[in-house]
TrEMBL record:
Domain Sigma-54 factor interaction: 147-371
Coiled coil: 113-140
CDD domains xref list: AAA
InterPro entries assigned to the protein according to its UniProt record, in alphabetical order: AAA+_ATPase, AAA_lid_NorR, Homeodomain-like_sf, HTH_Fis, P-loop_NTPase, PAS-like_dom_sf, Sigma_54_int, Sigma_54_int_dom_ATP-bd_1
Entry-linked SUPFAM superfamilies: Homeodomain-like, P-loop containing nucleoside triphosphate hydrolases, PYP-like sensor domain (PAS domain)
Keywords, alphabetical: ATP-binding, Coiled coil, DNA-binding, Nucleotide-binding, Transcription, Transcription regulation
Keyword field contains DNA-binding: yes
GO molecular function: DNA binding
Name the UniProt record assigns to this protein: Transcriptional regulator containing PAS, AAA-type ATPase, and DNA-binding Fis domains
């Protein structure tokens, strides 16, 4: 019959267990006498069986295990070096019926620790690669160089934004739809010291309010049915050390406004369904096309959150208040693929229009016109008719008689040139069509800056 495990065999059985463990083990009793070591302990430390039955401190000067016996505290990862051996030791008291009756020391050779640290390094590198991949997925592409415009209003907005990028204060960008708020937000991030990290845009108006909370703050394990097994980090966590762009902040539901305020104040967040707090370091840039002061006044937006966000305010002006920028914007958009030339009259029509959709609308209009043009010259006929009608109306209302005559004259000449051509042959033909001499045509072209 083989040996059975019984109370009598208990000590021997545990000894056998200790012998097959891959870590070094040394046990002392409450009088600090060594009661057991396993072969691995000898292998790692060089200490042999002769120590058994002897007081530990007599043979191992500087041993911390007697201390564990006294204070009953666990010590983990203590580094030890004796002659040419290096190892790490974990120490713990042995407690029986609530009393410390001994202590155990478990040691790992540093070659083993070395292997683990190599593995840790590999894992860290993996994490870094994944992080940088994620950063690339959340990359801001625009910089201040992409913001076209020479008007005082735009220059002022750019100057404030450039100063804002030197800090991590919250920024609130306001301005009508299509004025370039996102362009400003991205440029600030790209010029800031956070540029190597993620720029995470969230459209607070586009995500259903029931989802927005977990999108922003993430959720813990089992927070709700269909939740991912290990939970999911929210966009705040994704933006850690980077920038979170809260677009359309004016549309954020009020229950979330309170939570957002708390996170911004504490710089800590709790995932939905979790109690654990996580520290976050995120720069907030918020934007809205709404009149946010009015939202605050009507109690649709929390006043305390407004003040929290409104540290640096950037007001992006509508296009109709900076018409001097229209030519530059047309030029940059029209030269994106091929070079197009907008005839002066077409530019005048575009300048007379009010641009409710701002730069987005202007860009689309330019794209439309280049698509409609028969050659590289873009005329009034190539513009969308509703813009021409509205532009003409505005123009006529504010025109003197002389301006009107000059405008009509230019329109006629331009029309003739675009049908006959802009080369010498075309100009000769255009003069004929217009019923003037070629010399008069040249004079007029010069006088009318054409
Ligand atoms: N100053 C500028 N120079 C060149 N392009 C610009 C400028 N401002 C805006 N744009 C372009 O106009 C378009 C609209 O800009 P953007 O999306 O930043 O506007 P927005 O203010 O965020 O609009 P919305 O309120 O509708 O979200 C984009 O294609 C952007 O690149
Ligand atoms: Mg936007």
């Amino acid at each position: 019959m083989g040996k059975e495990i019984s109370m009598q065999h208990g000590a021997e059985w545990w000894k056998a267990v200790a012998h097959c463990i891959h870590d070094g083990i040394l046990v002392i009793d409450k009088h600090e006498i060594v009661r057991m070591i396993n072969p691995e302990y000898t292998k790692i430390t060089g200490v042999t069986q002769h120590i058994i039955g002897k007081p530990l401190s007599a043979y191992r000067r500087g041993a911390k295990l007697p201390q564990t016996l006294k204070d009953g505290k666990i010590r983990a990862g203590v580094y030890r070096k004796t002659e040419d051996r290096e190892y790490m030791v974990d120490m713990a008291p042995i407690i029986l019926d609530g009393e410390v009756v001994g202590a155990v020391s478990v040691c790992k050779s540093l070659t083993e620790v070395d292997k683990l640290s190599q593995e840790l390094k590999r894992q860290r590198e993996k994490v870094e690669t994944l992080k940088s991949r994620m950063n690339r997925a959340y990359e801001a592409k625009y910089t201040f160089e992409d913001i076209m415009g020479k008007s005082d209003k735009v220059k002022k907005a750019i100057s404030i934004a450039e100063k804002a990028s030197a800090s991590s204060f919250p920024v609130l960008i306001t301005g009508e739809s299509g004025t370039g708020k996102e362009l400003f937000a991205q440029s600030i991030h790209n010029k800031s010291e956070r540029s190597g990290r993620a720029f995470v845009p969230v459209n607070c108006a586009a995500i259903p309010s029931s989802l927005l909370e977990s999108e922003l703050f993430g959720y813990g394990e089992g927070a709700f049915t269909n939740a991912k097994k290990n939970g999911k980090p929210g966009l705040f966590e994704v933006a850690h050390e980077g920038t979170l762009f809260l677009d359309e902040i004016g549309d954020m539901p009020s229950s979330l406004q309170a939570k957002l305020l708390r996170v911004l104040q504490e710089k800590k967040l709790r995932r939905v369904g979790e109690t654990k707090e996580r520290e976050i370091d995120v720069r907030i840039i918020a934007a809205t096309h709404r009149n946010i002061e009015q939202l605050v006044h009507k109690n649709h937006f929390r006043e305390d959150l407004f003040y929290r966000l409104n540290v640096i305010r950037i007001e992006v002006p509508p296009l109709r208040e900076r018409k001097e920028d229209i030519s530059i914007l047309i030029e940059s958009q029209a030269s994106e693929f091929t070079s197009y030339i907008f005839e002066e009259e077409a530019v005048r029509v575009l300048r007379s229009y009010e641009w409710p959709g701002n730069i987005r609308e202007l860009k689309n209009t330019v794209d439309y016109a280049t698509c409609m043009a028969d050659n590289e010259y873009i005329t009034v006929e190539n513009l969308p008719s509703f813009i021409v009608k509205k532009g003409e109306k505005n123009k006529e209302e504010s025109e003197t008689l002389q301006e009107m005559i000059r405008r009509r004259e230019k329109e006629y000449i331009q029309k003739a040139l675009s049908t006959c051509g802009h080369d010498i042959k075309g100009k000769k033909k255009a003069a004929e069509v217009l019923g003037i001499s070629l010399a008069t045509l040249y004079n007029k072209l010069k006088k009318l800056n054409m």
